[in-house]
Write a structure and sequence with these properties.
four-stranded parallel sheet; alpha/beta; 271 residues; 7 strands; 44% helix; three-stranded mixed sheet
């Protein structure tokens, strides 16, 4: 059971923290609690600027930082310079978090702070090599230490009045590419344009999976009928983003479903 008191106690033990702040429900909850517990002079909330970060997520970070009085900064990450990341094998997330730690570590060292990530208990059961990369570099997961699941941190966020309590999960844009499809800036831009267009049509929770000139659209099962009612607009939106073919996944949205294509072991236990 998630324990807000235990979370605050852990943060006090750290004394100073650098929060990897992506604007999602997890990192926003952690950023707010850290800021409320330690104060902005001891909490740096850092957003990584990357081609894989959707522009609306960056805008949300800026808005939340202003609304909550966060000590917010932005840093550029260099994962696109790493061929191992661009290759998009099953260990892509390892190299992404490795690049994130490259950017966060100097900030933490300058402030004598601990890097903290918004990993929760539910995240531990999926294929997430990025967690291993961060942990190997000394990052801490205080939500895990305090026993928070995804639903529990959302419930706590709601009780605290945080607008992010029901924000849909929004993994990085590179997660829309099947493993083995190279990560390219132009591809990420097409995915972002397609998803932005669908959100403008009213679909708050959406994924556009990239298969060269084919887009596979995922929305929650409860939104399938609504999407089909505006089929023509959906097709125009996706094609305007650069795709030739538009398909709808009748199984609905499943976060991380591309991980099903992975084998039992992945080569991510390395630096």
């Amino acid at each position: 059971m998630g324990d807000l008191g235990a979370l605050r106690a852990t943060l006090r033990e750290f004394d100073r923290v650098v929060v990897a702040f992506s604007g999602g429900a997890d990192s926003s909850f952690l950023a707010w609690v850290a800021n409320d517990t330690l104060g902005p002079e001891r909490v740096s909330c850092v957003t990584a600027l990357s081609p894989s970060l959707a522009s609306f997520e960056h805008d949300d970070c800026a808005r939340l930082a202003a609304e909550w009085g966060l000590n917010w900064m932005q840093v550029e990450t260099a994962e696109m310079e790493n061929a191992a990341y661009r290759r998009n094998d099953g260990d892509r997330c390892f190299w992404c978090k490795d690049a994130l730690m490259d950017a966060l570590e100097p900030i933490a060292q300058q402030r004598d702070a601990v890097v903290v990530l918004g990993v929760n208990l539910d995240d531990l059961g999926d294929h997430r090599p990025g967690q291993q990369a961060a942990a190997q570099r000394g990052a801490r997961f205080p939500l895990v230490d305090a026993g928070f699941t995804k639903s529990e941190l959302r419930q706590s966020s709601q009780r605290l009045g945080l607008s992010t309590w029901d924000k849909p999960a929004a993994a990085c844009l590179a997660s829309r590419l099947p493993y083995g499809t190279p990560v390219e800036i132009s591809v990420l831009a097409s995915v972002e344009a397609a998803e932005r267009g669908l959100r403008e049509l009213g679909f708050r929770d959406v994924r556009v999976r990239h298969y060269r000139d084919l887009a596979r659209v995922e929305v929650p099962l409860g939104d399938l009928d609504a999407l089909l009612r505006v089929r023509d607009q959906v097709v125009r939106t996706i094609k305007a983003a650069g795709y030739r073919y538009v398909t709808l996944d009748l199984e609905g949205l499943r976060s991380g479903n591309l991980n099903a294509a992975l084998g039992q072991t992945m080569p991510h236990d390395r630096r």
